[in-house]
């Protein structure tokens, strides 16, 4: 990276990882392949015991935009993300998980230009292609695009894919960053989007820019019922900031009932089709 570049105008990419050796090369290569080159990548190793460190050090030795940070003990995703926010030098933050991949080479460029040209907007995401652990596409979906449409739905549904977003760092920090208490554990991103939306406009670009890996043992899968219950508390927390509060509550309770029934039922069904239907309609 050019040492003379204005550090306020770079994008800081936060990549938290824990034992991520299986997929992390793919994530990093997708960042390096971006047409927008004014970035720094903060890889925060949350106490990995596999070969993650060696992989990152090899990349950082060849590209000084890649910075390796290590938590000596496992702090968890919430504190690790906030460490990234504090260490970031850029004006904007982009996020990617160690098992995801950016597939639109102009993703950062498009989001950077949009936020620069639209100072009233604070967060911009994209659509996503969902793949399994072998890389096979399961389904894809776009999310509500305009601020008005997002805010009609966001109290009842997370309208952003974490690995797709770019947002304003200083604003996020001023709002407290990612929540670190148990009330938002596993939904800390959703809570941050709701906070950011109280301070400015939100947008999703109508492009498929990210491949998201759906893993059976992932946090989002294992803790889905817990997430739905916590979503109810988020709706209550922000009910005076967004419309459709009662609709959000109804959606949340219906999801808990339906998902709980399916988990306990012996009825044969396609989990992938269920998730696809949920993402597109709920």
Question: What is the 3D shape?
Answer: globular
Radius of gyration: 18 Å
Number of DSSP helical runs: 11
Average pLDDT confidence is 90
The CATH class is: Alpha Beta
- SSE order, as H and E? EHEHEHEEHEEHEHHEHHHH
**Oligomeric grouping of the chains:** single chain
The largest β sheet comes out as: 9 strands, mixed
SS strand fraction: 15-25%
User: What is the fold-level CATH name, i.e. the topology?
Assistant: Spore Coat Polysaccharide Biosynthesis Protein SpsA, Chain A
How many beta-strand elements? 9
The tally of structural domains comes to: 1
Overall SS class: alpha/beta
Any guess at the CATH architecture? Alpha-Beta Complex
Distance between the ends: 42 Å
Proportion of helical residues:
40-55%
Can you put this structure into words, describing what you see?
The chain is an alpha/beta fold and 282 residues long. The chain has one domain (7-216): Spore Coat Polysaccharide Biosynthesis Protein SpsA, Chain A, CATH 3.90.550. Helices cover 40% and strands 20% of the residues. It contains eleven helices and nine strands. Strands 1, 2, 3, 4, 5, 6, 7, 8 and 9 form a nine-stranded mixed β-sheet that branches. α9 runs antiparallel to α10 (245-264). The longest helix is centred in the last third of the chain and has 20 residues, at 245-264. The radius of gyration is 18 Å and the shape is globular. The N and C termini lie far apart (42 Å). Residues 1-5 and 217-221 have low confidence and may be disordered.
């Amino acid at each position: 990276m050019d040492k003379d570049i204005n550090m306020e105008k770079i994008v800081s990419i936060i990549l938290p990882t824990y034992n991520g050796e299986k997929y992390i090369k793919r994530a990093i290569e997708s960042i390096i392949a971006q047409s927008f080159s004014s970035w720094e990548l903060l890889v925060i190793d949350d106490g990995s015991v596999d070969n993650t460190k060696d992989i990152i050090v090899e990349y950082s030795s060849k590209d000084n935009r890649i910075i390796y940070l290590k938590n000596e003990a496992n702090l968890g995703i919430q504190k690790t993300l906030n460490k990234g926010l504090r260490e970031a030098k850029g004006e904007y933050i982009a996020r990617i998980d160690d098992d995801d991949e950016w597939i639109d080479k102009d993703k950062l460029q498009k989001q950077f230009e949009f936020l620069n040209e639209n100072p009233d907007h604070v967060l911009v995401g994209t659509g996503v292609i969902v793949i399994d652990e072998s890389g096979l596409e399961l389904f894809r979906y776009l999310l509500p695009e305009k601020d008005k449409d997002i805010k009609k739905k966001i109290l009842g549904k997370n309208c952003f894919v974490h690995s797709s977003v770019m947002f304003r760092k200083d604003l996020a920090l001023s709002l407290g960053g990612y929540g670190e208490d148990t009330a938002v554990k596993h939904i800390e991103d959703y809570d941050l989007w709701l906070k950011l939306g109280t301070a400015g406009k939100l947008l999703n670009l109508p492009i498929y820019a990210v491949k998201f890996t759906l893993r059976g043992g992932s946090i989002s899968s294992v803790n889905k019922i817990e997430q739905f219950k916590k979503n109810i508390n988020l709706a209550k927390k922000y009910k005076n900031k967004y419309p459709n509060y009662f609709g959000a509550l109804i959606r949340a309770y219906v999801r808990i009932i339906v998902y709980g029934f399916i988990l306990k039922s012996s009825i044969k069904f396609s989990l992938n089709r269920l998730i696809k239907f949920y993402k597109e309609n709920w």
